[in-house]
Each structure stands twice: as C-alpha cells, then as structure tokens.
Predict the structure.
Amino acid sequence: MTELKSLLPEELAALLQAWAQPAFRADQLFRWLQQGVTRWDEMTNLPKSLRERLAAECKLTAPTVERKQVSRLDGTVKYLWRLWDGNCIETVLMHYQHGNTVCVSSQVGCNMGCVFCASTLAGRVRNLTAGEILDQVIFTQKDSGEKISNIVLMGIGEPLDNWDNVYRFLQLVNHPAGLHIGMRHISLSTCGLIKQIDKLAALELQLTLSVSLHAPDDETRSKLMPVNRAVGVEVLMDTCRRYFAATGRRISYEYAMIDGVNDSDWQADRLASLLKGQGGHVNLIPLNHVTESPLLPSRRVRQFQQHLEQRGVTVTVRRRLGSDIDASCGQLRRKQMEADGRKGE
Ligand code: SAH
C-alpha cells in the first residue's frame, strides 16, 4: 500500500494523473494530508469514487495520542504517539521566544547504543517513514492548536541511520505547498556517522547540524558511545571541518555533562583545542538521569563552561525544559513498553 504522506506533491500528482484524475485533485489531497485528517471521508471535496480507491490502495497514517504530559514549570508538552502497528514514539513541543519548536523522533528505538540514553536500551525496532516523521509535526500542531516554526530532529533514533526517509521528510516539511518550514529553522542531531555527514555536506542544506560529542578523548567517548570505536574523535572532527567548509554552517556540539566521566578541566582544554579554527559552538546539557543507568549529572557544569569560555569557545548551557515530565526522549516510551508488556502477559 502506498503511504500517501511520504509522497512529495509532484509524486502525488503523478499518482493521480495515472488514475486519470484532473491535476487540481492532487493539490486538494495534499492539503488534506497536511491538515492531519484521520479518515478518507473527511476529504469532503474529493469525489466518493476517488476516496474509495484511495482507501483501497493507499495508507493514511494518523498517530493517536497514547499519553500527553504538560509541564507545570514551563508549558512544555510531551506526546507519546501510538502508531498504526502498535509501536510508540515521542515528540516534545517547546515554547521559546523565537517560536514553537517540536523535537521529533526518526526511528522506533535506536541501534547506536549510547550508554546514557534511554532510547537505545532495547535497540531499534524499525525506521520511521518520512510521513510518520512529518505526522509528528502535523498532529502536534493540530492537537495543540499552536503553529510550529522550528523543528529539531533530536528525539528517539539516529536520523542519519535513516537517511533516505529523513531527507524525504526535510523536503516535505520545507515544501512551499506544505508546512514550508525553512531549513534555517531545522536542526538535525547526530551521534557522528561519518559517511552520512559527508553526504549531507554535499547537499549544502542550510539546516543546523548538531553533533553529539560528549567527550573530547577516544577513551571516554568510546566508552560512552560505541559509534566512536570504529573511527575516533580525530576523524569525526576532520569530517566536521569538511562539513563547515562545504556549507559555511557552524556546527553545534552537544555535550551531556556526566559526573566524574567527561567534566574535568583537562577535558575542557582538549575540547577547546579540538574546536580551534572552526568556530563551533558547544551546548552543555546537564545529564538527564536514566533509571537504568548508573551515570549521574555533573556538578561542575559552571566550572566547565567557564574553562571553555576562557579558551575562546562559545558555550551555552541548555535550559532544562519539561524536567518534571520525563521530557528527555525515550523514557516515556520505555514506561509504555513495560505497561504494554504487562498487558500482554
Ligand atoms: N541520535 C541523535 C539524536 C537523538 S539524541 C544523536 O545522537 O545526536 C538527542 C541528544 O540527546 C543527543 O545529543 C544525545 O546524546 C542526548 N542525550 C541522550 N540521552 C541523554 C541523557 N540521558 N541526558 C542528556 N542528554 C542525552
């Protein structure tokens, strides 16, 4: 079955043309899809015969809200969506001065195995389709009644491990006929897949690339992030420099501060020297404690920040939005998996 929301407007037009439909039907259909209709018969301006054929041959994805938590501290909303096949994913809606931002998932689970991350504990179940990534934006907008202006691909999953669907999603969400969110309003976060970063660089997109670095030395980084074992920090930084040279876009480095693991002064020194000459920016994230992990949040965030700043690095410390609602990704899905497991017993 063709999943309609993953099709670009021109592909939808080709499909309907092959069905001998007039061209304007594709525009109508695309508009309905972007509005997040959940049933074919909501598409009231399409002839009944066309709706029947669509229902017979195509899939209309429409995630349902399994749980929704609203932070009392800052209004951040966390959605746990149930997908058509029973899997759950998370999306977070954050309110910033520069607009409403959604953090979307790109996979059901994750294969990267970072030891501090809840999303990867049970591995990857499957990739999300482009339409399912887009649905998170469409249905968050529909449910909240708030217009989304920024997107971060920082939810569950490794976006560059699902490159074809993620790239298709970027084209869809950026499309003038669709939500038309500009590339400069989109960030993509990766644990550092070298080949895919080069592929992304070649496209010269104007999105912001975030690289989850978390340690400046191979010993620590390989312990925290298995992806580092194959290539190492040096090769990753070379790749990042190439990315900057090709796109002119400064990379944002994510650094989750972990007590006694990556928060010492010598690591701040090493980090500062890695970033020399590429004008990168470091985003320090106070570690979110994951129940299954022994790692604890660092108590040296301010000292680490000052140490970096004294060495000329631009640093921000991420505000912890939604800290009362498990807003860091993967944790809500895990709770639901346990609950679903108990139901199945
Ligand atoms: N796979 C991608 C995007 C998803 S994770 C990546 O690795 O970048 C989004 C960010 O949250 C990453 O920087 C990730 O390392 C970080 N993260 C994961 N678990 C965390 C935790 N428990 N505390 C703080 N940051 C965490």
Remarks:
- The CA atoms of residues 336 and 342 lie 10 Å apart.
